[in-house]
Write a structure and sequence with these properties.
With 266 residues, this protein is α+β, with helices and mostly antiparallel strands. The protein has helices at 26-38, 41-47, 52-66, 87-109, 156-168, 230-240; strands at 15-16, 22-24, 71-74, 82-85, 116-122, 124-125, 128-134, 143-144, 147-149, 173-181, 192-200, 212-219, 243-244. It has a five-stranded mixed beta sheet, with helices on both faces. Strands 6, 7, 8 and 12 form a four-stranded antiparallel beta sheet that branches. A two-stranded antiparallel ribbon has the order 1-2. Strand 7 and strand 8 form a beta hairpin.
């Protein structure tokens, strides 16, 4: 009788540019992580069993593909030289780590997937609604509410303010909940549940960032076609307002009666 070999499910992940050029995979992520922790390309290379020349070549290739340096070396001083990750290098490493963690979680779920949790923000100012134009599928090029997936260990209110800041450059404050939207076919990527918040923003110029190609204010009476079921969420906000939360962003108690639509003015 043939012996059944033990096996496990393994996945491999890498970040790449939009035109398919590789940026960061497991090996490159490990090299960046070691450079960041040791402050030395030499020490990082030694830990990985590679030469300094090879390690430096990898870092130079990543920098060229990423469009900027991922490490910077500081020479001299009482303690000698030191190499550290740039903001670009840290950003690539953090993005890879988040994606790797999410992928591993999907594998652990196996045959028992469950809905993913997202948040979206309704931000109104002077009769205009803040929208973002989606940079990537699904609904690439369509207008949508600012929002995205909730991170591990992140509260919903923290997530919606983070997504607003990343996609529009604006800071905000959570005013209350517009509603929760859970229709299984609302997102072509799979079953997602979105909690939509009314968010106030005091001022500043909106600009697209992260997954948003553009951010702009649109008149409430002349809104474009929106992605997902965001038109439904906006209609609910206009019709019935939002449910305020006591100290929403800080975790305070208390949910009051529903507040009618209340534009934020500057």
């Amino acid at each position: 009788m043939a012996r059944v070999m033990a096996r496990r499910l393994a996945v491999r992940l890498h970040l790449e540019t939009e035109d398919g050029r590789p940026l960061v995979g497991k090996g490159r992520a490990q090299l960046l992580r070691l450079v960041g922790s040791t402050g030395s390309i030499t020490a990082a290379a030694r830990s990985m069993g590679m030469s300094y020349r090879n390690a430096w070549g990898v870092l130079r290739e990543v920098s060229g593909t990423a469009g900027g340096p991922v490490v910077v070396s500081e020479r001299g001083g009482s303690r000698g030289g030191r190499t550290r990750l740039t903001a670009l290098g840290r950003g690539l490493l953090e993005e890879y780590a988040r994606a790797e963690e999410a992928l591993e979680e999907e594998v652990r779920r196996g045959a028992h997937p469950h809905p993913r949790l997202t948040v979206d923000a309704v931000v109104e100012r002077n009769g205009r609604l803040l929208l973002v134009r989606r940079h990537a599928p699904p609904f690439q090029g369509a207008w949508a509410l600012p929002g995205g997936f909730v991170g591990r260990g992140e509260r919903l209110e923290e997530a919606v303010l983070r997504e607003l800041r990343e996609e529009t450059g604006l800071d905000g404050e959570v005013l209350g909940i517009v509603g929760a939207y859970s229709r299984p076919d609302r997102d072509p990527r799979g079953h997602t549940v979105s909690v939509v918040y009314a968010v106030g923003s005091a001022g500043g110029r909106a600009r697209g960032g992260d997954d948003a190609a553009e951010a702009a204010w649109h008149r409430m009476d002349r809104l474009p076609q929106l992605a997902f079921d965001h038109s439904e969420a906006v209609a609910d906000y206009v019709r019935r307002g939002f449910l305020p939360i006591g100290d929403a962003a800080g975790g305070g108690p208390g949910v009051g009666g529903r507040v009618s639509r209340r534009p934020r003015r500057t």
